Amino acid sequence: MEALRTPIFPSSYLSVLPTRFLPTRSYDKPLLHFAFNPSPNSSICANFSKSKPCTPRPSASTSTESMESHGEEKFDWFSQWYPVAPLCDLDKRKPHAKKVMGLDIVVWWDRKESEWKVFDDACPHRLAPLSEGRIDQWGRLQCVYHGWCFNGSGDCKFIPQAPPDGPQVHTYKKACASVYPSVVQNGIVWFWPKTDPQFRDILMKKKPPYIPELDDPSYTKSMGSRDFPFGYEILVENVMDPAHVAYTHFRIMQAPQGKDNREGGTPIDINVKRLDMDGFDADREHARTKFIPPCLYYTCLESPAIQSNKSVSSALTKEESSSSDHVSTRRVLMTLLCVPVSPGNSRLIWANSRNIGLWVDRIVPQWIFHMRLNLVLDSDLYLLHVEERKIMKVGPPNWHKACFGPTKSDAHIVAFRGWLRKYSGGQLDWGTEFNKTLPPTPPREQLIPPREQLMDRYWSHVVNCSSCSVAYKGFHVLEVVLQILSIALIGIPGAINHAVMRSVAGRITVVSMAVLCFAASRWLSFFIYRTFHFHDYKHAFC
Question: For a FRET experiment, which of 426, 469, 474, 527 has its CA 20 to 30 Å from that of 48?
Fold first, then answer.
């Protein structure tokens, strides 16, 4: 039963994790630390920053003001690796359209090089989207507008309209597609948002953050993604915030101390240990966290258990335990990648793992985990959408003046906003791609209510999730089968001239089965809608 309660949710919900496998002691040695490019052979949980904790600040206002430094080097948002999509949600048979940092890109599988490629989603001919194209029989990416074909290096290999005995126009530089550097790491496709040839070998100089546990077969790995109608900054804030769980996710997630009421909130002692351009480290009871800009927020929960009659002291470490004792460390790792899509839009890619309860993931399909996770994400989605618009009215650089975070439970958010203000002027720099205005909120008088449109699960998750899309299609087939069966059962008594069918009992049995099939199809339709399309969460009545 302990494994069944193992958390699969984002790290913002750490405060509601079951405490049976969590340590009740303080940590003498931090649990996790890695530089921006950690060694692929070392566990992230093995080390953590040993810098002294920052002095707690009384409020977000004083904290962010003290962090501001006009002489500091600025963070370059376009000189970073960005996650695009988990491999489990990518189909090698077709190209996939994505947007990251305001850039329209296409991800496709190059059969010849056996690699995932990331191109600018525009054909050099007439700028038609390559993502609407296809993979031809030779494994090339073909634009379906005029049939131009490109290999994995972006070279145009065929222009159908060019005479074979004429100039080799497909070899011209202007006929090439723009290629972004890309790499697969931890089961996720990453790309570098610059197509200049000088960045072709950028992977040799700078790599995405590596998490060894995600490639460790002794750990489970649950991955997925969801798009949101609010911006990157709001998403990062939300996944870092454990204090809202007892209220926003009431009765969806386990409350602290098992409280089944709205008074489940408790003080949370969060200490930021380091803050610089490379992000920050923080710790709190039972957890160590790390933010590596621009996207990674990582949490490690670790509980060493000594398999002997001795008690576990608060100062125990693996090195201090005797060789006669067997130490087994139970870990839950939550990796959240917050991806900036465009102003007012973001994407969350989660990659969670644990080394306990491995059998659960082997027998339970992923769509069941995603069903519950989507309910968690929906319960604060509308709040965050509205919150962002209020912040935009005062201006993101003035966040510290508009918002008040007086407790240590806000330390993550205060640290992130302080980092953002110190190294990026208080907001993400989109370059010249956008004017930083948000898309309009759908008006209330529309036929589709704003909440239903904003919280739609199908286009933001299901259509891109391999597990959920298969389940969605399967349930739809079952719904149709039940409807056909109910109609067929109604016609059986009249079509079959049999003694059983002529009896009252026989007719009642067949009609009852038809009614049950029809009722089951209606219930299934309701289940499909609430699970894969829209499930509202009304806080006033929960």
Answer: 426
> Using CA atoms, how far apart are residues 412 and 291, in angstroms rounded to an integer?
9
- What's the distance, CA 500 to chain centroid? 57
Max distance between CA atoms of the chain, in angstroms, equals 94
pLDDT band at 346 (very low <50, low <70, confident <90, very high): very high
Cα 91 from Cα 189, distance rounded (Å): 13
Distance of alpha carbon 427 from alpha carbon 309, whole angstroms: 54
Distance CA 385, CA 373 (A): 18
Stated pTM of the model = 0.81
Single out the residue of 213, 253, 240 nearest to residue 353, CA to CA: 213
> Measured between alpha carbons, how far is 279 from 416 in angstroms, rounded to an integer?
8
Is residue 45 within 8 A of residue 213, CB to CB? The reply is: yes
Q: To 10 degrees, what angle do helices 411-424 and 60-67 make?
A: 30
User: What is the residue type of 196?
Assistant: D
pLDDT, average across residues 477-487 = 93
Q: What is the 3-state secondary structure (H, E, C) of 301-369?
A: EEEEEECCCCCCCCCCCCCCCCCCCCEEEEEEEEEEEEEEEECCEEEEEEEEEECCCHHHHHHCCHHHH
Tokens read off for 390: 């209020």
Angle at alpha carbon of residue 288, lines to 18 and 338, rounded to 5°: 95
Arithmetic mean of pLDDT, 192-201:
94
What's the whole-number average pLDDT of the chain? 79
Query: In the structure encoding, which two tokens stand for residue 124, read together?
Result: 């050099």
70-77 — which CB contacts under 8 Å span 24+ positions? 72/277, 72/422, 72/423, 73/277, 73/423, 74/423, 74/424, 74/425, 75/277, 75/293, 75/294, 75/423, 75/424, 75/429, 77/101, 77/294, 77/340, 77/424, 77/428, 77/429, 77/430, 77/431
Cβ partners under 8 Å of residue 262, min gap 6: 246, 247, 250
Are 146 and 126 in contact by the 8 Å Cβ rule? The answer is yes
Note the Cα 399 to chain centre separation in Å.
25
Whole-angstrom distance, CA of residue 335 vs CA of residue 427: 23
- Given a cut of 80, whether residue 380 has pLDDT beyond it is yes
User: What is d(CA 182, CA 87) in angstroms, rounded to the nearest whole number?
Assistant: 13
- Give φ, ψ of 357 to 5 degrees: 65, 40
CB count in 10 Å sphere of residue 530: 14
